[in-house]
Amino acid sequence: MLTREEGWKQLCEWTASDALRKHARAVEVVMRAAARRYGGEGADVEQWGLAGLLHDADYEAWPEEHPKRIVAWLGERGERELAHAISAHYTKWGVEYVSRLDCALLACDELTGFVGACARVRPDGLATLEPKSVIKRLKDKGFAAKVERDEVTRGAELLGVELATHIEFVILSLRPHAAEIGLASPKENVG
């Protein structure tokens, strides 16, 4: 099985942007928590974390080919489930959702990015962010305009969870890592 160290090395090789690396790390954190919450008994926390870490690994270098490069790279290593989940993390690609991993990656990716955007405009970052604030911002199409709201709602639907409950889960999963991923108050953020 692919190790986290190998995944991080590949991400860094293809992704120079600190912001995109932090997003990958944030989605990794949420996906590790999602394995425990949504994956059922026997869910592979490492695999789920790698899905979050690597889902956008080829985006910066080859945006027009995304996610084909990372999917091929994973396929060459025999990581078929991981490759499939990453190939399905955007509904408009038309890839079938066959596992809880597939559904969770869709449900966690876009929402994690949106929660991050909400935290960045608050003086205390994630510390006091509540689901109702995120839901209010989701209704404001001008805020974080590139975030596709349909992806956020479809992900929660696929997991069979209320959107507010899923938003709370994402916030709570990220809070212990807020400084590392740049979502704490400005005085607490690390590098």
Number of strands: 0
Radius of gyration: 15 Å
**What portion of residues belong to β-strands?**
under 5%
Helix content: 55-70%
Structure explained in plain terms:
The chain has 191 residues and is mostly helical. The protein has one domain (4-177). The chain contains nine helices and no strands. The protein has helices at residues 4-14, 18-38, 45-54, 68-76, 80-87, 100-120, 131-139, 149-159, 163-174. The mean pLDDT is 94.
Jot down its keywords.
single chain, 191 residues, mainly alpha, 9 helices, globular
Write the layout of secondary structure elements.
Blueprint: H1 4-14, H2 18-38, H3 45-54, H4 68-76, H5 80-87, H6 100-120, H7 131-139, H8 149-159, H9 163-174
Helix pairs in contact: 1-3, 2-3, 2-6, 2-9, 3-5, 4-5, 5-6, 6-8, 6-9, 7-9
Could you provide a short overview of the structure?
The protein has helices at 4-14, 18-38, 45-54, 68-76, 80-87, 100-120, 131-139, 149-159, 163-174. With 191 residues, it is mostly helical. The two termini are 31 Å apart.
